[in-house]
Amino acid sequence: MRLKKTALALLPLALVPAAAALHTASASAATSGPWSVRINSGGPGFTDSQGKQWLADRYFVGGTAATNHRTVANTTDQTAYQDERYGMSGYTIPVPAPGIYDLKLHFTENWANRPGQRVFSVTAEGQTVVANLDLVKTIGATTAYDVSVPVRTTDSKVDVGFSAAVNNAKIDGIEVQATSTPAPAPSATPTSSPTAATTTKPTTSPTTAPTASTAPTSTPTNPWPTTGSHALYVSPTGSDSNPGTSSQPFRQVQKAASVASAGTVVHVAPGTYGAVTSSNSGTSSAPIIFLSSSKWGAKISAPGSTNAWTNTGDWIVIENFDIADSQYSGIMSTASNGKFLGNHIHHMVPPGCSRGGAGIELQNYSEHNNDSIGNVVNDILAPTSGCGLIHGIYYQGPNGGRILDNIVYQTSGWGIHLWHNANTITISNNTVFENKQGGMVIGGSLEGNDIAPGIASNNVVTNNIVVNNGYYGIREMGRAGQNTYADNLLNGNASGGYSLIGGSTPTGTITGDPQFVNYQASTGGDYHLRAASPAINKGTSQGAPTYDMDLAARPQGPAVDIGAYEGGH
Q1: Which domains does the chain show, CATH number per domain?
Q2: What is the pLDDT of residues 452-466, one digit of tens each?
């Protein structure tokens, strides 16, 4: 039931121009005090500087998740404002019972840079609580701005609606807190949808929102490892002579890597750090986790170094880092059971074509069970024309590895490359385009010092978008056996879609424009799918991850979508 306008007038609105109010809500439902929930719109779960838990984005209806890396003024919690959801019609947030709740909305403007570029309104339980908000005009760009309002609901949900006058409505975070006694946590699934609101697409932004094809399901909690038995901390304000605690952090990631042991989570604050070599190993139940505390906020910059991050330890996780400026490889690992998750590896500077390299390079013929998931790899371009040795993601070893939900573009070589002894690898739901040599190579070799068997076989290649690459979209080379190719979208590749030599027969191939929301490889684009995309609901469950690059659940329609993103969110 919607609150009557006269009743809402009894509940005063509070506008908070500084995000110090981010911490005024009580602890989460798991702690003492009134029940509360905090949602990091457009981003993963995290713990803020006050120790309060934020859930990964959920309960939304439509829209697109995005992350920016500009420093936001008026807050000590950058993650709460650097992730966002835009173009949604609303959020339906379950609450324990009917009653009055404190609703807090967190905003910052990270796209518009002058007044009038984005104007939108927000309702709570059907009543307007924010009218014609122009964040740049009100408080300026990249500055935290919070709105607090009491809301009465007569059912077990709080409906928040968004409507846009100019470009898309957006939100960075939402808090709901009971005003009385503690209550059980809400169900993870919304019970109904808020009243639909009209949104308007931007006409100039490279992050134009897609039109949702289906109503989304809840975003799952972060499926990637983030917790361990003990922690170390790294900050640009720290010192390597410190003990590495949260109050006395190390200065360099390298220092933490040298002392980390099984079960350690290395929390790395936003800032710029030098090249890293990690040689200590975790275990299957207690990996060593290197975690950028905000996505792409911790930057590994290694100009002049062959590799930005060299890993020789097993059971290692490298998650959410920005990695750039090295010569031949962003992450180079010779170990097994590694997870390389959600990183942005870009603008490497190969000095020539004298050796191979890649954004993510697994350089060991016997390494196994390594996962590269949710990474963006781009702009790895050798100065030598026609250099085919510098790739996006390169696997040399066999058995159990996965390459899922990645976006790879503008490399000198191939976007995704299997070679030497790489077999039994799953390559699913990637988006690969504008790589100079081609989209994907599935191949093996038995030459020189290569080891047997050197045959690319038993690989599963499904649900990938491979478009506008030089040479072929997907090609087998060298020694190839039987592999599975199903439900891939191939279009605009210079020499054609498939070139297969091992006797495999592709099924479910789609040709045609994938209809990205905004295809701008040279300046950055939005590679979500439009509602009319031929890739929506056309994938197979074989090899598909249960979440997409936004960590939104797959599928969100009757079948999995093709490419790194589900189209219906």
Answers
A1: 5-178 (2.60.120.430), 286-511 (2.160.20.10)
A2: 788 999 999 999 999
